Structure prediction request, 126 residues.
Amino acid sequence: MYRERGKQVWLNPDAEKNMEAGGLLVDVIAADTPGRDSTWVTEVETEDSVNDEEARSQWVRYGEAYSSWHLAVPVSQYEAARKLVAKHGVRHCKVIMWDKNPSGIHTFWGLPGLSVEGESAASIGL
Prediction:
């Protein structure tokens, strides 16, 4: 979705180390231009990874490193993630949601840098 809109994007899925932002390997790093003047970072969690350990070991660090970052969680984990963010004092974090349909298409609501008037979701085939 980022590339389709002329933006740069780097992914760090699982144990891959393709690009750092602020010295950390967050899941998605996107930028408006090749110079990365406007960089957006998004950590993508799964049903199982929305928990106290992730909040303590990762989210708190991201809140210290970034002045703004996004935490994408499954729709079913949205409230749990918001409670963990508050419980652990995670800073500068906006919790957004994603869902996967039976065809394998992931829909994200609120991805940074993709806001278009009247559009609230971005669908990605992963």
Observations:
- Residues 52-65 form the longest helix (14 residues).
- Helices lie at 52-65, 78-87.
- The two ends are 11 Å apart (CA to CA).
- The chain is about 20% helix and 30% strand.
